[in-house]
UniProtKB/TrEMBL annotation:
GO terms for molecular function: transmembrane transporter activity. Its main location: membrane. InterPro entries: ABC_transp_permease (IPR001851). It comes from Myceligenerans xiligouense. This is Xylose transport system permease protein XylH. The keyword Nuclease does not apply. The chain crosses the membrane at residues 20-37, 49-67, 73-91, 98-118, 124-145, 165-189, 209-229, 236-254, 284-303, 324-353.
Length: 394
């Protein structure tokens, strides 16, 4: 009875994260059934990684923006502008591919400096600054490209968003290298989870029973290695997945264990308390938008690489997809709450729904209706959950 009670308490305390993980499993299962398994086929899973990686990259930066109590409506336009700058440098001017990538990143950082200055030091709300940025950077994209698409990129640049690593360790109808990399990742996850559990025990914090902990590790390992097998039997390990994984690991560490991360949560949770505690609010807000500009430039490189072109209309609605991923993944509308893994799950839910409906031949307009309803329900659940928590404490 004690074990059952502890399990119930853990589920209750983590209803938001548990609920979104369960919803993701249900949505995947539903679309897998409706598409006769095509959703989970090796080729389609590879395409899912390539098609939605840039949204997940944007969601990482957007999560930090939202946790800090802001919003950024300009990221889609920044994706278009940074991709356009890379194309001008590489395609039109003939510089090496890496020079174009560096130019795109530099442009993203400058955009972050520009928007961070107006938000942090002038005091204009981020909604207004980034709304202006959405128009400004879209117009600059049209000027840079002379309102025409620019292509093609050289093969090396295209490998960023479309390339695969395979055959490095040989294989027998599958890519061994992919399985090894994912196996190492599973071991790393298990070790990190065990160390985290021991740390909680040392501070007398509640943890799940050991059998439940072990079951969770085994389940995660099984799902991850199944996904690895699907990739290994298709085209191998997507290069962009390595980039995305590195960003997820780095920003999870930053948000959980760095001073900057703690200050972002403090500002979003209670601005007045953060100021009284000595948090340098202006500096943190500036860094939030500098970081968003950097990640938007990475997404711009990935998207232009996958498209093999810089287009004036690139990145349209990307900001809404990134925002939706964060809110569906558990970020609070009022700031101060949200995690990188949660945003990734939210982004994957959007990706699976879009891909599944496309496989079923659902009209694009209907897809937009479904996404809008899912976002509304996710935010509504967040508000309801807060009211329920407030009623319990009052």
């Amino acid at each position: 009875m004690t074990t059952i009670a502890n399990l119930k308490d853990l589920v209750t305390q983590n209803v938001r994260s548990s609920g979104i993980a369960f919803a993701f499993i249900v949505i995947v299962g539903m679309f897998a059934f409706m598409t006769d398994g095509r959703l989970l086929s090796p080729g389609n899973l590879s395409n899912l990684v390539l098609q939605y990686s840039y949204i997940l990259i944007l969601a990482i930066g957007m999560l930090i923006v939202i946790v800090g109590g802001h919003i950024d409506l300009s990221v889609g336009s920044v994706v278009a502008l940074t991709g356009a700058i890379a194309a001008v440098v590489v395609v039109r001017e003939g510089f090496p591919w890496w020079v174009g990538a560096l130019a795109a990143i530099a442009a993203g950082l400058l955009i972050g400096v520009w928007q961070g200055f107006w938000v942090a030091y002038v005091g204009i709300p981020a909604f207004i600054v980034t709304l202006a940025g959405m128009l400004l950077f879209r117009g600059l994209t049209l000027l840079v490209l002379s309102n025409m698409s620019l292509s093609p990129f050289p093969g090396e640049y295209g490998q960023i968003g479309r390339g695969f690593l395979n055959g490095l360790l040989g294989g027998y109808g599958y890519d061994t290298f992919t399985l090894v990399i994912f196996g190492i990742a599973v071991v790393g996850y298990a070790v990190a989870a065990y160390r985290n559990r021991r740390a909680k025990l040392s501070y007398n914090q509640d943890v799940e029973a050991i059998w439940l902990f072990a079951a969770k590790i085994v389940l995660v390992a099984a799902v991850v290695m199944w996904f690895a097998w699907q990739l290994a039997t298709s085209r191998g390990l997507p290069i962009v997945l390595i980039v995305l994984a590195a960003l997820i690991i780095a920003y999870t560490m930053i948000t959980k264990h760095s001073i900057f991360g703690r200050h972002v949560y403090a500002i979003g949770g209670n601005l007045a308390a953060a100021q009284l505690s000595g948090v340098r609010v202006k500096r943190v807000n500036f860094l939030i938008f500098l970081n968003m500009g950097f990640l938007a430039s990475i997404a711009g490189i990935v998207f232009s690489s996958r498209s093999n072109a810089a287009q004036p209309g690139a990145g349209e609605m990307f900001e809404l997809d990134a925002i939706a991923a964060c809110f569906i993944g558990g970020a609070a509308v009022t700031g101060g709450i949200g995690t990188i893994p949660g945003a990734m799950i939210g982004g994957l839910i959007m990706a699976v729904m879009s891909n599944g409906m496309s496989l079923l031949g659902v009209d694009q307009s209907v897809q937009q209706v479904v996404k809008g309803l899912v976002l509304l329900l996710a935010v509504g659940f967040d508000i309801w959950n807060k009211k329920r928590a407030g009623a319990r404490t009052s």
